[in-house]
Fold each of these.
Amino acid sequence: MNALSQADATVVIRASRVNGWTEAAANAAQLRALVSIHDVMPSNLQQITELLEICARHNIRHPTLLVVPGLDWSDQQIEQLHQWQRAGCELAGHGWVHRCRHPTNLSHRVHSLVLSRDVAEHLSRSSAEVLELMSRCARWFEKHDFELPKLYVPPAWALGKVSANELLRQPFSMIETISGVTFAHQRRQLRLPLLGFEADNQLRRVCLTSWNRLIRCNLRKTSCVRISIHPNDHRLLLADDLCRSLQLPMQPIRYDALLGFK
Ligand SMILES: [Zn+2]
């Protein structure tokens, strides 16, 4: 009989506590997880603090924080970001103001109806405008004495009309979209499954529950999963699903660790 190490035993115990997740979770002992908190803005730092506490209770000490820079940040709030970064949280750029223009094309209208509402800031913009927006986002971090983040996540994961060649002309190393993470300068993409919980109505609850179930059933086929948290998820309809996901036996990693992936 194989003896279980202390770490293995802990994994099994944690897995056994997660109803409905046990088999996938037990098989996912080596699973790595990219845990991110979206929409870090001046208006919701209280919710971000609560989510960081929830993550810490699940031994996820350093989620990646997706910061929306072009808003009315006070010096005190920027200092709070510095404190979170000093504590080990990776910061990422997340659009500029996290609000889109009025949709000017059909695909944006459909996207906003189905998924993004009024936040897909890149859509209905030219590639030059998107690249300028990304550069403005990067300059904000440098202006406020942060290191330039490695990661950029367009609002609603919608990059818009930007080609791989054009991505060479923006300042971030990695761009996260709905399908995975693109390494801008290596012209390659790592496809990664994504769990989400932003269910503020019954339709979203049903869709996200089915989506998450599908991802969960296939966890054994992947070595890394993305867990994407929005600021009110712990107060919305999939709060329990979020907590179950955070209990998966997994090793949280930073996005910048992906730069070493082959
Ligand atoms: Zn967002």
Amino acid sequence: MPDSEAPISRQARWQRKHKALGLCIQCSRKVFRSWRCRKHYELYAVKQRLRYVPKRGRYGDVTDKELRAELKRLTSAAKRKSRA
Ligand SMILES: [Zn+2]
């Protein structure tokens, strides 16, 4: 079965055509990266970044280990202070 007759949606066919022509799959401009123009690539990157939600082991951008080390540093500093 030729690609043009494949049972895919109109949108999917349009995107495949644009991929093959080296154009953005969202707006027909020249590809910048990952089948998207610069504008759509940036939007896509932001969207993916927001999509990523760590399930555990992290507090904001700080790892669990870093958090514990910071806690240890603060508590030991407080102990030293109270002793002096
Ligand atoms: Zn685009």
